[in-house]
Structure formats: structure tokens, C-alpha cells
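WARN retry 2 of 3 for item q-0093 after timeout on previous attempt; input resubmitted unchanged.
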Amino acid sequence: MIKISLICLGKLKENYLKDACAEYEKRMGAFGKLTVTELSPAPLPENPSRAQITAALNTEAKLILSKLPQRSGVVALCIEGKAFSSEAFSEKLQELAVAGDGNVAFIIGSSFGLAEEVKARADLRLSMSPMTFPHQLARVMLLEQIYRAFQISSGGKYHK
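OK item q-0093 returned
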């Protein structure tokens, strides 16, 4: 059974997003165990400087890296990451799980992204799309794609 860790900067605020995440978490129960860790983003002023943003990302990086499971495949969601079809993502998820002793950790950063230190630690840099999405919606989309990947690898009917 695969163990998925989702490490996110920020909490879900809207009930409809919480409900969607809860639904995919429930559905994934047949395939693996999902653990969601919500971390508080480093505080920044209204119009932060590049130096303030870098310092915040480095503070967040230390927190993120401290929450990674010991042995796991690590996936960082970032704009410069690789995009996959659902089928290719399903295969990659299985590869990462094997390499990580059944553990895969996904990281969703704050609105300013992720520090280079976190990206360097990742086994895969993943892009959901060249479009920009709110981080809270990206969480729902990621959970749906993980669930879809499980369905694909098990030959389920969800993926058409």
C-alpha cells in the first residue's frame, strides 16, 4: 500500500475545497494512505522585496524539509516542472513509490513558490499546467490526479 504525504504551505479556507479534498482522500483509502500536513507560510509585508521573499522561502524550506518522511520519493510542484499525461503520471507515481519504499511526498509551496533547496531535494519537479492556479485549487487538482493515477494502475473504470 502506497503512503502519500502532501505537504502544503497554507490552509484550505473554502468549504467546497475542503469537501473536494476530503472526497478524494476518502476515495484513495482503497489504494493507499494519505497524510496532509499544512504549514504556515512565512509572514511577509504587503509588497515584499526580492530579498524578503528569498528569506521567507528559505524559512519555509527548512520547515518543509523537516516534515519529509525519511525514505520517500519527493515531488515538488513548481511552474518549471514537467507536465505529464494522466497515464504517464500514473507510471511515474508507481516508480517513485518503489524508489521511496512505498512512500511519496508531494510539496505545494506558498504563493511565491519553493526555495531552490526544496526543488533540489525533489526527485521530480511537477507542473500541473502552464496556467497559474490558486494554491488551494492546485491541491484539489493534485489529489484528483493522484486518485486517477491509482485508478489507472489498478485498471479501474474512473479514468476514461
